[in-house]
UniProtKB/TrEMBL annotation:
The keyword Transmembrane does not apply. It comes from Sphingomonas parva. This is Type I restriction modification DNA specificity domain-containing protein. Belongs to the type-I restriction system S methylase family. InterPro entries: Restrct_endonuc_typeI_TRD, Restrct_endonuc_typeI_TRD_sf, Type-I_RS_S_subunit. It comes from the Bacteria. Keywords: DNA-binding, Restriction system. PANTHER family: TYPE I RESTRICTION ENZYME MJAVIII SPECIFICITY SUBUNIT, TYPE-1 RESTRICTION ENZYME ECOKI SPECIFICITY PROTEIN. Residues 206-357 form the Type I restriction modification DNA specificity domain. One of its GO terms (molecular function) is DNA binding. The keyword Lipoprotein does not apply. GO terms for biological process: DNA restriction-modification system. Pfam families: Methylase_S (PF01420).
């Protein structure tokens, strides 16, 4: 049957500004995307026309139908329900169609594929025509069978959500274990400011005494001839992807002209970089000579300090370093604070042993994380498979 045969389009367009003191239950696209319920707000706060609809309606988003936004509204909300005009409110004929079943069928990839082709493109978005949704076909078995299928899918999707949550927690646990093993191998936090009352013990030296501190700079964007070339230039968009690794390439390159006409410096291979603004606390080691933006502080280790010992010391102290940042909008670790950092210095032999221990432990946590991510990817295919099977009458 077509959707319009079992769930006609309902609702009335209204201007909330005409009922400024009325409290509405506003079902919006952002609220759906964020997994929230409706926002309760007065008409005076709503600046555009909305669509009023009754309880029991199924809201189908016209925006980019390949992104499933189907909202079955069957709550106890007392405020008047309104939704974005980007939603199509469909009201199931309860003598023929169960609302939960309808919502699941509208989410099925089979239905989406059947209507996504004719969707019309706008400048920045894609919309499906209401007539295509209403004319779309769905299987409509007897009500008892619909409810059985809806019950099955409700339970299955709840279990999928729980499993996703469990896998996410396991991935987070792998990250926490990685940091704990790093700190354990280092014998505790190995980075502190010059006030080390919370980290007693011998071996602390000013970091600047064993590594040359260097800042970064951005060549002028108004001079395109200073960009491009063979000098990698590390910026914030690079750092998350290379955190904890050796950097071999960057998104942007500068050149000799860019270096000559700015404060950017070509730093040697094995320089240790730390992001100090906005995305604070990410660490990497240069795998070749390169320059950085001013968003980084860089250390060129001297003969008594291994690059990767310093990198792991900074990674192990990430939370501590983030605690040293300040700023109302974008957090920043300012240079005076960075200049005051001390490192707990071990012998080169001990540093090498710690680095090897950390790398060995990281290999185990990385293998565990990869296995969990494979399970997560497999799990992500399950909802689509279940919905397709339900649409074809195979469950």
């Amino acid at each position: 049957m077509t959707v319009r045969e079992v769930a006609p389009l309902v609702g009335e367009t209204l201007d909330p500004q005409r009922a400024r003191s009325t409290v509405f239950a506003h079902y919006s696209i952002p609220a759906y995307d964020e997994g929230r319920g409706p926002v309760l707000e007065p008409g005076s706060a709503i600046k555009s026309n909305k669509t009023g609809f009754p309880r029991g309606a199924v809201l189908f988003s016209k925006l980019n139908p390949r992104i499933s936004r189907v909202w079955h509204v069957d709550d106890e909300q007392e405020a008047r329900r309104i939704c974005s005009t980007e939603f199509l409110p469909l009201h199931p004929d309860t003598t023929r169609c169960d609302g939960r079943y309808l919502a699941w069928m509208l989410r099925s990839p089979d239905f989406v594929r059947s209507i996504a082709g004719p969707s019309a493109a706008t400048k920045s978005r894609e919309r499906v025509k209401p007539s295509d949704v209403l004319g779309g076909k769905i299987p409509v078995p007897l009500l008892g069978e619909q409810r059985r299928i809806a019950d099955l899918l409700d339970a299955a999707m709840t279990n999928v959500a729980r499993a996703r949550g469990a896998l996410k927690r396991q991935i987070d646990d792998c990250g926490r274990l990685r940091f704990a093993l790093t700190e354990e191998a280092l014998g505790g936090r190995a980075i502190a400011t010059d006030d080390k009352n919370d980290q007693p013990g011998a071996g602390w030296v000013p970091l600047s005494s064993v590594a040359r501190l260097e800042s970064g700079h951005t060549p002028s964007r108004k001079r395109p001839e200073w960009w491009g070339g063979d000098v990698p230039w590390l910026a914030l968009p690079d750092i998350r992807a290379v955190d904890g690794t050796t950097i071999g390439r960057t998104i942007e390159n500068t050149n000799e002209l860019g270096l000559a006409n700015s404060s950017a410096r070509l730093l040697p291979k094995a320089t240790v970089v730390l992001s100090r603004t906005a995305s604070v606390g990410f660490v990497a080691v240069m795998g070749r000579p390169m320059a950085t933006s001013q968003d980084f502080v860089n250390w060129v280790p001297g003969p008594t300090l291994r690059s990767w010992y310093l990198a792991y010391a900074l990674i192990g102290a990430r939370d501590y370093l983030r605690g040293l940042s300040s700023g109302a909008v974008h957090k920043t670790i300012y240079m005076p604070t960075l200049k005051s950092l001390h490192v707990r210095l071990a012998s080169l032999e001990e540093q090498d042993g710690m680095v090897e221990q950390i790398r060995t432990s990281h290999s185990f946590t990385d293998e565990a994380r990869a296995a969990i991510e494979t399970q997560s990817a497999d799990l992500d295919t399950l909802p689509t498979s279940l919905l397709s099977a339900a649409f074809r009458g195979e469950i």
